[in-house]
Amino acid sequence: MRIRWLTAGLAGLLLIAPPAPAGRAQAPGAPAVAAPEDTTALAAAAPADSAAPAVTELLRGLDELYESTGTRARVEIRIVKPGRTRTLRMETWSRGEDEALVVIEAPPRDAGTATLKVGRNLWNYLPKIARSIRVPPSMMMGSWMGTDLTNDDLVRSSSYEEDYASELVGRSSDPPGWLVALAARPGVAGLWERVEVVFGDDGLPLVSRYYDRRGRLSRTMRFTDVRELGGRRVPATIVVIPEREEGRRTELRYLDVTFDLDLDDDLFSLARLERRR
């Protein structure tokens, strides 16, 4: 699943996400969406509730949360591991969902390190050797800069609409909101078999849970600290928690965001990536 908010928000970088406008009704003949394994949080079935939101609108809002024709953001990432914490500060630019540039500003030992995304291609610029290195397919599931996000998170081109069958399951009590279930369609390659997202009554995401191909809960993302950034009301903090690695998490905090900028074409080029900073 494409984490578009990450791509756009982090300059397309992390762009958490975690796609094309999503959420169409399940197609005839498509497999039924797997029901959540733990249904204790469900209070009612959505179809019986006249106030239930449309799945399409919820997922489209998630896709477009931080996206614009040109986005610039300053982001701080805290990588928490047992016994130590590391903090990165970066500036990011993105245009739509296919172009993004991320430049690390701090700490000093990582300053100047940059990541460029163009379509499904990804390059890392390493200032210590003054070279750009393309990330090969074999490294796509590797960690990006030691975070709990993978290189694949930055370039995934899957779509909720095309690759996942969606269903509004009903009300959630933990956290309170609307639970949407997404199940990968047959033949779709990727890490996640299904995803559960809880939306608040205002349509903003509260939590998303990712299940691997064996049906195990692998990763949880929590969206908090809702505030106005760049004229939009969005979660300013996203916490990524790997479920099978105790004591680990990655916290992304948007310091400031500007939307709908007119960005130069050469900003998303190898020449710009390698330009001395």
Q: Can you tell me about this structure?
A:
By secondary structure, this protein is mainly beta. The protein has one domain (4-274): outer membrane lipoprotein receptor (LolB), chain A, CATH 2.50.20. The chain is 10% helix and 43% strand. The chain is built from five helices and 14 strands. It has helices at residues 4-9, 55-63, 151-155, 160-163, 270-274; strands spanning 42-45, 71-81, 84-95, 99-106, 114-118, 121-126, 131-134, 164-173, 176-184, 192-199, 205-212, 217-229, 232-242, 249-258. It has a 14-stranded antiparallel beta sheet. Strand 11 (205-212) and strand 12 (217-229) form a beta hairpin. The longest helix is centred in the N-terminal third of the chain and has 9 residues, at 55-63. The protein is globular. The chain starts with a helix and ends with a helix.
